[in-house]
């Protein structure tokens, strides 16, 4: 636990399930104020709010589309009205779908780029603007992926969006370092989330994924949430402009493991 996170206010986009949900729970355990952004209502949402509060934090659910400027501005406004400040903004919302690149429609391309990259730009821009106006030395965390580094056939729109996140993060970090605003990314590898449930239910498909992970297991959302808490805390006070890969070694060319090659 990080004592300095107690009482801080964090906005997490796409926080109703998967990695976002685990981050919301973790910041609740840190006794932070959590704005839980979601796009579509779910049966789990009410329980998530209760669990955050049971962990010692405070929580407010806010519906909104991260690709809509007014919805993003509303997240900032509600954080300020409800808790008096905003300290941490986590651009977590993301989508993906598998399509051979020569068959990828413009609509599919635009949807993934808009949510994953434009949504992160809007969240970053609005939160940084607020922090500058209020002289807050805050933190922005973007959710990237191992696929900002590893090409991924049939997911060209997703990989392109995460490559964009890398440069978005690095450029903003350089631009606002002198203001005390830190901007970093997290690059998860294969994580046991609902979006991967069908794939990992197939023993062969799961084994194929595990074979690409030097540590030999698929990560849990809580392991990514732990990275987010560290990046948001003062323990990482001298860290900005990085992608911290939490991937079990997936980005380290696992085919060479054991001296092969």
SSE map:
Elements: E1 9-12, H1 18-29, E2 33-38, H2 44-54, E3 58-63, H3 69-83, E4 88-91, H4 106-133, E5 139-143, H5 156-176, E6 182-188, H6 197-201, H7 203-210, H8 221-232, E7 243-246
Parallel strand pairs: 1-2, 1-4, 2-3, 4-5, 5-6, 6-7
Helix pairs in contact: 1-2, 1-8, 3-4, 4-5
For the structure shown, list the relevant keywords:
single chain; 261 residues; alpha/beta; Rossmann fold; seven-stranded parallel β-sheet; 8 helices; globular; Sc_DH/Rdtase_CS
Beta content comes to: 5-15%
The number of helices is 8
Write down the overall mean pLDDT: 97
Assign the structural class, choosing from mainly alpha, mainly beta, alpha/beta, alpha+beta, or little secondary structure: alpha/beta
CATH names the topology as Rossmann fold
**What's the CATH class, please?**
Alpha Beta
When the domains are counted, the total is 1
Describe the biggest sheet? 7 strands, parallel
Kindly report the oligomeric state of this protein: single chain
Overall 3D form = globular
Distance between the termini: 42 Å
Name the CATH superfamily assignment.
NAD(P)-binding Rossmann-like Domain
Q: Give me the side-by-side strand order of the main sheet.
A: 3-2-1-4-5-6-7
- The count of strands amounts to 7
Secondary-structure element order, as H and E?
Answer: EHEHEHEHEHEHHHE
């Amino acid at each position: 636990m990080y004592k300095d996170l107690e009482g801080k206010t964090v906005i997490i986009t796409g926080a109703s399930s998967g990695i976002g949900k685990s981050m919301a729970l973790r910041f609740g355990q840190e006794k932070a104020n959590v704005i839980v952004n979601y796009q579509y209502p779910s049966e789990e949402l009410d329980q998530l709010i209760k669990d955050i509060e049971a962990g010692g934090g405070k929580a407010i659910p806010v519906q909104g589309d991260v690709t809509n400027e007014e919805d993003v501005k509303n997240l900032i406004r509600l954080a300020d009205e409800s808790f008096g400040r905003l300290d941490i903004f986590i651009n977590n919302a993301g989508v993906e779908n598998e399509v051979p690149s020569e068959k990828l429609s413009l609509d599919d391309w635009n949807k993934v780029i808009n949510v994953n990259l434009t949504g992160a730009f809007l969240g970053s821009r609005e939160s940084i603007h607020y922090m500058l106006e209020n002289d807050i030395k805050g933190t922005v965390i973007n959710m990237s992926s191992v696929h900002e580094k590893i090409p991924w056939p049939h997911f060209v729109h997703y990989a392109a969006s995460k490559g964009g996140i890398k440069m978005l993060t690095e450029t903003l970090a350089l631009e606002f370092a002198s203001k005390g605003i830190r901007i970093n990314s997290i690059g998860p590898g294969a994580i046991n989330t609902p979006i991967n449930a069908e794939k990992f239910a197939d023993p062969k498909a799961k084994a194929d994924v595990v074979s690409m992970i030097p540590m030999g297991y698929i990560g849990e959302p809580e392991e990514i949430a732990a990275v987010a808490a560290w990046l948001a805390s003062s323990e990482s006070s001298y860290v900005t402009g990085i992608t911290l890969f939490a991937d079990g070694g997936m980005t380290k060319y696992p085919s060479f493991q054991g001296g092969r090659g």
